[in-house]
Amino acid sequence: MSEKIDYNNFDYYTNRELSWLDFNDWVLEEARDEANPFLERLSFLSITQSNLDEFFMVRVASLAKLAAVNYPEPEASGMTAEEQLKAVNQKAHVQLTKQYQTLDNLLPDCERLGIHLKTVKQLTDKQYQYIKNYFHDDLYPVLTPMADDSSRPFPFIANDTLNLAIQLKKGGNDEPLYATLQIPDVFPRVLRLPDDDNAFILIEDVVKEFVSQLFVNYKIKSSSAFRVIRDMDLDVAEEDTSDLLKEVQQQLKLREHGDVIRLEVESSISKKLLKRLTTELNVEPFAIYEVQGPLDLTFLKHVVKETNGHDDLKYPKYKAYQPKALSAQSNIFDAISQHDWLMQHPYDKFDPVVEFIRQASSDPDTLAIKMTLYRVSGDSPIIRYLGQAAQNGKQVTVLVEVKARFDEQNNVHWAKKLETMGCHVIYGLIGLKTHCKLSLVVRREENGIRRYMHMGTGNYNDATAHFYTDMGLFTANNDMGIDATNIFNMLSGYSRPPFFHELHISPEGIRDFIDEKLDAAIQVVKDGGTAHVQMKMNSLSDQEIIAHLYRASHAGVEIDIIVRGICCLRTGIKDVSDNITVHSIVGRFLEHSRIYIFDFNGEQTVFLSSADMMTRNLNRRVELLFPVKQSDLRDRVLAIYDIMWTDNVKTRVLAADNTYKRVSRGGKPANESQAVFVADAEKKVAFAQARAEQNKLSSLQSAGERQPETPDQSDSANPDGSDA
């Protein structure tokens, strides 16, 4: 019967881009959810804008390029590039309306709470004088009006910059004149006003008020803010380049001049100004977005940051946990040599990952450090310690992926820095992005060479580790260590090991592994057993994997999937996806971990991975999937998944009509998984501190009995390494 089903039927798939817009709509719903702290709601609204900007810069830009050449091949749901481009813009327009309705709903509450985002007309005399002085003293010397006429052509408008389009006239001459003015981004977008601790005005409103002073003897007929989003996808012709670093740097310069994909204008813009902009910028009508409010809602994150005295309107702070054995007070290699350690960020501190590299950098027994870096922070301590390790005589090899989207410039900088510090640097591989998160420390010990590893689902980025949920594993497992060595030999040289003992590598290896597991699940059910597959990922869009999940579902395999965002799979299709349930969690932290669990007749195996089930991750990236073999850690991952699966506060369930609905609580107590993990972390911190205090007291009592005048201070540090 399964042979009669066409699992590639267009009706069985959701368009990837439209699915992503659904995800962004859930983020928008968090901004509308009154259960969230008020300032966090402003942050969520800001995030929807930054999400949308990146989506247009890359995904919509790609569709535009395909549509421009009339690319005929439909994607999995049957839509051509042209159809997708129009559908995406149509849906994005609806989302834009909802964004600004949300802003309109939030602004009265801002006022009520004493947070004032003012217009010029609402300013007091003192505040008006303040912005007038600010314009003359600070802004005026920097502003550069650009005339647009026959001798001075329309200027280049940079991506994601705020600009004014201006129409003028001189004296009795009715012939319209045009100019543009970029709002300089070297000044804060949100300007704090005097006489009120939480009163702000947007910088473009200040410029608008006094813009006539830049055009002496001319009359301003109208001025309106506008912003363009350009094609910012990096197009590196890797097969033709012998120096990948130079090619990336070259493309970064060219990228700034990509085609305009989206034009945002104030809805009050005059018809003449709008026509001028659309003509000069070559914008399709469907790509014009008329906004009833301030452009670029990312300014809200600055309002949140600048607001004083309202910590009660933010998520409460919490203390992440760090075992003492993985802190600076202990030898981290001794701890890992005894057993594996599982980290769940941000509930567990990211510090042990940094500490792993720090201790290796000065450890006399460490011979080599090898590491992959995809995204790192702007001031990365890991980079610093890798450099120190090289200067201390360790052999340090680092693969820095210079093609990591929107982090290219940062990564090029760090790659050069690492080289100057004496590290061996690999700039990624031709045709592939290296997305796996892997670090290997090789030590000479009493019994010979031993390898220590950290593998993770997320980036080695100490900044994003505070709000991305990820998992990592420290291990000294010998077979995994041999596999890791072989991976680095593949990345730096020409080695092609015939097999791996425990680790699975993309391209192809992870796809083969998932296919084998799904085939095994189908066989178990055919043999009369039970099979349960549980997955968690950011995106599920690969058509072959989805078709295989459909086959497994049809065979009777129970499949539970947690997908944060894009999901091209559809549930509730008779005889196809009856046994598949899809949840999505959007909350305080960005769900980022990837978990793959297989239960065959009660025998459970657990894997973590850097890879989503997307074609790019399975075919065009170096990715890593690794087992959690230690029984207590395996049980912990299973428990973590179960807590997320039973979340009845932040979960949405994919229904048969291809819409997501909030999960029904059914009278059960609230279970918000991220809040559960925060509470658990705080309990562990409190327990560790109480135990430390008890140990300290016992130590002092013992010392007092022996030497009352010299109390023992040796155990004064917190055992968890926390700041408390």
Automatic annotation (TrEMBL):
Mg(2+) binds at R375, R405. Residues 587-617 form the PLD phosphodiesterase domain. Its EC number is 2.7.4.1. Signal peptide: none annotated. It catalyses: [phosphate](n) + ATP = [phosphate](n+1) + ADP. Residues 696-724 are annotated as: Disordered. GO terms for biological process: polyphosphate biosynthetic process. The active site is at H435. One of its GO terms (cellular component) is polyphosphate kinase complex. Its cofactor is Mg(2+). ATP binds at N51, Y468, R564, H592. An intermediate of this reaction is the autophosphorylated ppk in which a phosphate is covalently linked to a histidine residue through a N-P bond. Keywords: ATP-binding, Kinase, Magnesium, Metal-binding, Nucleotide-binding, Phosphoprotein, Transferase. It is an enzyme of class 2 (transferase). GO terms for molecular function: ATP binding; metal ion binding; polyphosphate kinase activity. Pfam families: PP_kinase (PF02503), PP_kinase_C (PF13090), PP_kinase_C_1 (PF17941), PP_kinase_N (PF13089). PANTHER family: POLYPHOSPHATE KINASE (PTHR30218:SF0). Belongs to the polyphosphate kinase 1 (PPK1) family. Catalyzes the reversible transfer of the terminal phosphate of ATP to form a long-chain polyphosphate (polyP). This is Polyphosphate kinase. The gene is ppk.
